[in-house]
């Protein structure tokens, strides 16, 4: 197969459980299922890009070997989230016969937390009815959105965000295979923008590699439309010093000249504030302002006005504390 134009996320998706990085404990437990030849219903939960889908697919590969595609079905609940998808597509797969000498089939339902409550109730009944011939693997970002009767029927695996070492290991492996040179600064930038999400890291290096095989941190921040940590620190410092004009000018540059999304700036400010050495009471108030602005943006408020107002609240809050 010609991989010249393949998306690297798929090109470098692990094919075996042992190849999954950063989730050693979960991989060990899933491998024990393969050795025993049996599998309970599973619920994978965790943030995006931490290996939930990869774990489900590789688990099916190791269970069914060459027949894995005929005994494994992947569905995304966000495409059709109502009860009909359970009654029709899911139930139809669960009730049909298995291919080859296998004890059960596996249905992987991604983004299961998008299912309505009625659909989840119907899914619970389907899981009960066809438990002998079909195992279900549910994946979600928020396990609290999965009804208790389903959670109680599953072995729950909580995938943690990938650590910096795991991100670096995978990036170095890809760089070696693609003939790329990644500077130390670029590697730090990749870890910073990824925040434990391997998809973000791989997308970043593929985007930069299209331009040049030698990748530096400037390219990474530009490709991902992310502010550098020192720019965020400067924005916070100007605001805390009460320099509204300076902070507003830097904010406008980041938003309009660099094209950085307001929600991304809020997220970066939050991360920087958590690490900043400052009065704890002031830190709490500033984080509260970030949360309020983030909520207003999610409700559809004007982003330019809200981001300017955020800087204004930062300035006013620090001035009151003096």
How is this structure best described in words?
The structure is a single chain. The chain is of the alpha/beta class. The protein has helices spanning about 10, 25-35, 50-65, 85-95, 115-130, 150, 165-180, 185-195, 200-210, 215-225, 230-240, 245-255, 260-275, 280-300, 305-320; strands spanning about 40-45, 70-75, 105-110, 135-140, 155-160, 180, 215. The strands form two sheets. Strands 2-3-4-1-5 form a five-stranded parallel beta sheet. Strands 6-7 form a two-stranded parallel ribbon.
What do the pLDDT scores average to?
A: 91
CATH class of the largest domain: Alpha Beta
User: What is the number of helices?
Assistant: 15
What is the radius of gyration?
23 Å
Strand content: 5-15%
Oligomer: single chain
- Sheet with most strands: 5 strands, parallel
CATH superfamily of the largest domain: P-loop containing nucleotide triphosphate hydrolases
Structural class: alpha/beta
Q: Domains counted in the coordinates: how many? A: 3
Termini distance? 66 Å
What's the total count of β strands?
A: 7
Order of strands in the sheet with most strands: 2-3-4-1-5
Assign the CATH topology of the largest domain.
Rossmann fold
Secondary-structure element order, N to C? HHEHEHEHEHEHEHHEHHHHHH
Name the shape in a single word.
globular
Outline the low-pLDDT stretches.
none
What share of residues is helical? 55-70%
CATH architecture term of the largest domain: 3-Layer(aba) Sandwich
């Amino acid at each position: 197969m010609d991989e010249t134009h393949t998306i690297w996320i798929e090109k470098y998706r692990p094919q075996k459980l042992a190849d999954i990085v950063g989730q050693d404990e979960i991989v060990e437990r899933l491998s024990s299922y393969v050795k025993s030849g049996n599998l309970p219903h599973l619920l994978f939960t965790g943030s995006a890009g931490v290996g939930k889908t990869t774990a489900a697919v590789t688990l099916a590969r190791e269970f069914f070997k060459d027949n894995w595609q005929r005994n494994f079905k992947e569905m995304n609940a966000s495409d059709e989230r109502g009860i009909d998808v359970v009654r029709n597509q899911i139930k139809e797969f669960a009730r049909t016969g298995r291919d080859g000498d296998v004890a059960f089939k596996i249905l992987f339902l991604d983004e299961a937390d998008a299912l309505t409550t009625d659909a989840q109730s119907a899914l619970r009944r389907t899981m009960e009815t066809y438990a002998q011939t079909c195992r279900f693997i549910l994946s979600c970002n928020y396990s609290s959105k999965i009804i208790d009767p389903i959670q109680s029927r599953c072995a729950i695996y909580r995938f943690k965000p990938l650590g910096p070492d795991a991100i670096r290991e995978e990036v170095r492996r890809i760089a070696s295979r693609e003939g790329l040179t990644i500077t130390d600064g670029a590697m730090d930038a990749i870890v910073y923008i990824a925040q434990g999400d391997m998809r973000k890291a791989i997308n970043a290096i593929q985007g930069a590699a299209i331009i040049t095989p030698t990748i530096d941190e400037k390219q990474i921040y530009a490709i991902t439309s992310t502010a550098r940590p020192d720019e965020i620190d400067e924005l916070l410092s100007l605001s805390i010093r009460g320099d509204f004009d300076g902070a507003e000018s830097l904010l406008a540059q980041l938003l309009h000249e660099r094209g950085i999304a307001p929600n991304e700036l809020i997220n970066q400010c939050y991360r920087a504030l958590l690490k900043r050495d400052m009065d704890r009471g002031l830190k709490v108030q500033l984080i509260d302002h970030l949360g309020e602005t983030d909520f207003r943006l999610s409700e559809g408020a004007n982003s330019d006005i809200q981001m300017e107002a955020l800087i204004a609240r930062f300035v006013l809050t620090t001035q009151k504390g003096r």
